[in-house]
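Recall that a protein's primary structure is simply its ordered list of amino acids. Everything else, from secondary elements to tertiary packing, is in principle encoded there. The following example makes that idea concrete.
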Amino acid sequence: MFKSIQLDLRAYGELSMFLHAESLPGMRPVSNNELTAVIRIGQDYLDNYYEVRIPLQVTLPSQTATAAEIWPELNQLKLALQDLVALKLRRNSSGHPMNEIYREETNGETFSVKGNPNLGEVTSLLIGVENTNSAQPANFEVWADELGLSKLNEHGGWAALGRVDMQLADLGSVSLSANTYSAGFGTLEQGVNERAKNSMMQFDASATIDAGRLFPEKAGISIPVYASYNKTVLTPEYDPYDLDVRMKDKLRSYHTSRERDSVKRMSLDQTTSKTISFSNVRFGRPSMKPKIWDISNFDFSYTFSSIDQSSPLIAENSIDKYFAGLGYTFNGKPHFIEPFKRLIKSKSPWLEFIRSFNINPTPSLLSFRTTVDRQMGIYTPRSVNLYASGAEVDTAETTFDKYFRMSRDYNLNWNLTRSLNLDFTANNLSYVDEPYGYLDTKAKRDSMWHNFWTGGRNTQYSQKAALSYNLPLDKLPFADWISMQYSYSMNYDWVASSLLSKSLGNIIENGNSSNLNGQFDFRKLYDKSKFIQAALDTTSMPSLVDSLKPEDKKRLDSLIQNLPKRKEVVKGLKGRERKLALRNWRAMKAAIKEAKVAFNRKQVVRTSKAVSAAVRLLTMIKSISVTYSSGYTSRLPGYMDSTKALGENWHSGQPGLGYIFGKQPTKEWLEAKARDHILTTDPYFNDLYRQTYNQNININAQLEPVPDLIIDLTLMKSFNKDYSELFKDTSGTGRFEHLSPYSAGGFTVSYAVLHGIFEKPKSGQVSKSFQRFADFREVISGRLAKNNPYYSGGVDGDGYANGYGRYAQNVLIPAFLAAYTGKSPETIGLIEEQNKSIKTNPLGHIFPMPNWNITYSGLSRLGSLSSILSNVTIRSGYNGTLSMNSFTSSLNFQDRLMQGMPSFIDSTSGNYVPYFLIPNITISENFSPLVGVDITFMNQSNIRFDYSRSKQLSLSLVDYQVSEVSSTEYSLGFNYTRHNAKLPFLPVPKKSADGVGNDMTFGLDLAMSDQLNSSTTLDQTNNYSTGGQKVISISPSINYVINNRFNLKFFFNQTRNIPYVSTTPPIVMTSAGVQIRMSLQ
């Protein structure tokens, strides 16, 4: 019998088991001691195990056999586990080979050991029977029962801990702590095998001190110091190489104290850590007025930490870390100089732009920091030969984990003017190369320090700069209604190549982004005209203004001067009288102020209703906001030059300040760099040059042609593109080639189609728009052939120009757009046929069109409706987009004569291969809602109605299908609230203190949506439905307010889903219930 186990038997004293043997009926009887039970325990069954052999006594068949006869005492296994350990020790001391079995016989039983088994990690158990009479075969039956462990080793352990914390006045604090426990220690809930198998001693000491307190306070010295020391020693109870041999027994087997000390030292698991840190050390107090040369701007930091570890399996594992940093930080206060403010005395707003000119000579932030970071890691494992007598231990080869880094950081933030801000950051990382291994010779140390004092080997340089400018248009009287912000940011990165592949060159990357935000407040512009202001003013002037005369100026001045102050009005008054007096005083003050304003106008401008309506229509644009952003990035591998200040090699002038500050490379720029021999010519170089571009445009406008009619217009465009190529010397002669050019990107634009959105698809019949699409292809084919200088004339059998057949991509897309937008195929824009630059968009001729959201809320103010209706809102919104989710370039595109048109005709399709491959075009439009009405009556009841339409068209250039999803949706909602309602089954509560009564709200929501999915394939006479459904839902509810803490709601919801295809079953979902909501506030 074999069994895999995971046991630790060291906590047990005895292993026992009952054995029974008998002969099989009708077979040769087996005699006593002819069979031997074999029990093996250890790490495996063949090489590392303890073995016990017990000669078996055979029980004769009997109807009256006792338990002692069935389980003879001589057959019982009663094994003291320590006897096995002692056997192994005797074997080791005798010099017997460990890979050969070693046996001893006691009381007829044989005990054996082979290899180096241990009772601390028993993984294998074998129980077998051996026929000792090999001359004759034996037929028998053997039982093994109740294999068990007993005589637990329950010796306990002890533990202690202590801690001392000392506060050294305002100098700092010191903490000391110690912790120890012995083998056998454990908590009450832990089992014997869970208790500690080793003794532990731990000591910790730490101190936090401000050494600057030792100097005079006026010196302003700050020296924060932190120091700590920690040591942990684990002393095992058992030999770590022989887990069932106690260390005291193992040490007794050695004859000299030197050997015993060596073995004891290797058995310990020790960890020692030390740290000392000086953080942000500063000298001198900062002056009241910051100066760039103040010594307090400097700071210094230094940290040393060390961890040393050794264990039975690790001879040395130490890591020493050194960190030092020197920094300079100047935080300046802006000091804006306005040179023309005193020269120009005039207060004219037309001169304000010049008068407010300012410049700030002081940077807001100027900082520099250099840090040195070094690590020295040494790792030496032990090599343990467990098959040697007593386990031979040696050390393996030492490995090193070390680095020596130097980093420099630069930061500059400068408000050059109140409107212009500059932000610059840079980082340089270099490595100090060290010889391998210990620095145990003068030559090695000199090599390291030489590399250090020369600044190390640059491995990475990164910088970012940003310039933001708020145009001071508010200083120009004719443009103060415009606010505009522009920002430009750039980044540049240089990354060194690996020392193993220096011939492949370094990598440089750059990027830039531009952002423009503009707001045009036309209301402020209109307010500059008194005529427009009066025409747009719908309010009437108070009676005081109507009776105003020019000779009343003195009376107004007298009223203003004689108006009592607030303190005098309320003097001696309290409560209600004080409030009433204040209210009358404020009303008088406001009336006099309004009359004064009207007087200063000299004359109130009056306009007729027709003129006001015309002016309102001409000035319906109220505001416009524009957001534009664009960004470029490039990545050039194989760059062989180095980097100096600002990332530029000033000796060679590479890569150029233009590239460093974000200018994007062109084909000519790349070829110039190749001629300058700064690009790698390694034949194994295969890294791609990459460039990206993204552009986003958002325009929002608000119009109000008549009062309460708000029209919000939005325009949007989003375009992104990636370009890559392999630019390399393929011949080894310095002649570089542009290989495998590849482009990919996406495009989305706001669009307004409106043509055919109300045209409902009919199953089995193609739509008129699709029929136009099919007919327009021939016209587009002719236009493309006429524009292509490679076209040789002729048409195919279907009447299409050769090279531009009925399924050519550049034929289908313009025809699709013309047919579904109602435009002429003679004037619709065509697809771009070449990649002129990274900004080239295959659908660049498509400009964004406005989407809108219309809201009118003025009906409730008309005549008698104002007494019935509290609020009426009519809404209508449209959102449409045209998107090309992804496009790629064709590797088969050819333009032999550089004419900007394709010259290669694919032999399979018979069409010219375009540069851009577009898998699909999607047009999505949505009236959400087409009409929406929200009416609130004076009794707070409410009615809502929405009618929405949507359509999504998708042209697939893979299977030449047009997929259409058309949807119509109606929704109706009603709410009515009855105050002080009573439910017969609920007690009537008293009205709460906060005025919350028993309101009952009845609600009803009805909705119906009809969606149909269809697909039509080109050159087929019908379409077919691919999906769709009709959904009807009803949701009545009653909400009852019991009091300000309890709310009761009865609800019912039902939704019916009726599919249009037979593969989907109809679904009805119904839910109803009562909801009780309780507030605990």
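The longest strand covers residues 365-385. The chain has six domains: 2-152, 156-312, 319-483, 491-513+626-741, 524-623, 751-766+834-888+915-1081.
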